[in-house]
Amino acid sequence: MTHHRVEAPHAPVARQPISSPDGRVLGHEYLYRSRVGLAAGVDRWPPARQDAASAAVLHTLYGHHAPCGTGLVFVNVTRAFLVGERPLPPADHRLVLEVVESVPADAATLAGLARLRAHGYHVALDDWTASPAQCAMLRHADFVKVDCRDLEHLGEAGLREARAGGARLVAERVADEQLRAHCVELRFDLLQGYALGRPALIGA
């Protein structure tokens, strides 16, 4: 298993709070940003560039010391990090490997997820749509993140399926107070979005 100091270029990183329904900040998602600090649209990049973006975020956070504070640290990762092709920092029981929706649920990925959780990493499935790949990975997930724009399509059945493995549900893109209240009614465990706090660049 590969987990040691992550070597990659430093990159601007923003963090966005992830809060409980009563407003307590329990962690942050750490997001790759362009050199001028803007969202970079990483999800539209080819796999190799996505790998490099995840590596840059991890290096910025863990290259010299762990992030300050005690909250959870959500970072988007690609298949390369799950199967040991790219290094991860040592597990600190704070790092949450947020599996992007393009990752296939092949045998190597599933074995990697099981191995990483056994070593103390947390796992989140990003942008839950109940795809076959996500359903195959669900048993390894500590968190399932749902984009609020998908709530109508998912319905109660889709949320119930996401909860089936015991993962905590995180509502993403909670844009306003009305949507925040709706997500509380739907019994989401955690909330993320502009209604809770916008991404802010962290110091280098």
Explain what the structure shows:
- It is a single chain.
- The chain has helices at residues 47-62, 79-82, 107-118, 132-137, 151-163, 177-185; strands at residues 13-19, 25-32, 72-77, 95-99, 122-125, 143-147, 168-172, 190-191, 200-201.
- It has 204 residues and is α/β, with parallel strands linked by helices.
- The protein has a single domain, classed as Alpha-Beta Barrel (TIM Barrel).
- Strands 8-7-6-5-4-3-2-1-9 form a 9-stranded mixed beta sheet.
- The protein starts with 12 loop residues before the first strand and ends with a strand.
- This is EAL domain-containing protein.
- Residues 4-204 form the EAL domain.
- InterPro entries: EAL_dom, EAL_sf.
- Residues 1-20 are annotated as: Disordered.
Quick structural summary:
This protein is an alpha/beta fold.
Counted by DSSP, the helix tally is 6
Secondary structure category: alpha/beta
Can you name the CATH architecture?
Answer: Alpha-Beta Barrel
Which whole number gives the mean pLDDT? 88
Largest sheet: 9 strands, mixed
Order of helices and strands: EEHEHEHEHEHEHEE
CATH topology: the name is TIM Barrel
CATH class (first level) name:
Alpha Beta
Give the percentage of residues in beta strands.
15-25%
Q: Please give the share of residues in helix.
A: 25-40%
Name the CATH superfamily assignment.
EAL domain
Regions with little confidence, pLDDT below 50 for 5+ residues:
2-9
Overall shape: globular
Main β-sheet, spatial strand arrangement: 8-7-6-5-4-3-2-1-9
| Total domain units | 1
